[in-house]
Amino acid sequence: MNVGDTLPPLEIPVTRTLIVAGAIASRDYQDVHHDAELAREKGSPDVFMNILTTNGLVGRYVTDHLGPRAVLRKVAIRLGAPNYPGDTMTLTGTVTAVRESEVEIRVVGANGLGHHVTGTVTAELPAADGTAYETADGTADGTVDGTADGAAAEVRA
After folding, report:
1. Which three-class secondary structure string do you get for 32-98?
2. Structural contact between residues 14 and 1, judged by C-beta atoms closer than 8 angstroms
3. Closest to 19 in 3D by CA, of 42, 44, 41
């Protein structure tokens, strides 16, 4: 893996089910993520995807390419155009840095309205023998820092 390498694009159909299921799975019960009528009353043409679902899809995109033993160390994203039902989000990625066992990938997710998500993902690659790296305390758990939809979220392990 070298700086400038690109990841193959991933097209994700944005369905109403994906939007609602992602909101429920992340315990985001804001009506704009599951109730089209209330979303319209608040000025949106329909329900739209929440930032935690987007964050998960970005992580999936990177680990699909790097493999299941890669460990996401940092995911820093910013939302732009909303993901509405019936659209398709296409994720693309470019390697921006390679440092020993770490790789940094710039990710963009675009839909029919423009860029839905932009950000960077830092991942630790498996050791040459195929084993996963661990944190100093032997765990891989992390913390999430985030804000409301339309802002930014960051995950660190």
Report:
1. HHCCHHHHHHCCCCCCCCCHHHHHHHHHHHHHHHHCCCCEEEEEEEEECCCCCCCCEEEEEEEEEEE
2. no
3. 44
Tell me how far CA of residue 42 lies from CA of 38, 48, 135, 140, in angstroms.
6, 12, 44, 39
Determine whether 62 is exposed, middle or buried from the number of CB atoms within 10 Å of its CB (0-12, 13-18, 19+).
Answer: buried
Q: Is 114 left (phi over 0), alpha (psi -120 to 50) or beta?
A: left
The pTM assigned to this predicted structure is 0.80
Q: Determine the Cα–Cα distance for residues 6 and 53; give it in Å rounded to an integer.
A: 23
- Average pLDDT for the chain: 86
Give the integer Cα–Cα distance in Å for 71 and 123: 5
Radius of gyration of the chain (CA): 16
Sign of the four-CA dihedral 91, 96, 98, 101: negative
Q: Which amino acid is at 10?
A: L
Q: What is the pLDDT of residue 83?
A: 97
pLDDT score for 130 = 55
- Six-digit token string for 98: 């390679």
Tokens describing residue 75: 């995911």
Confidence check: pLDDT of 152 > 60: no
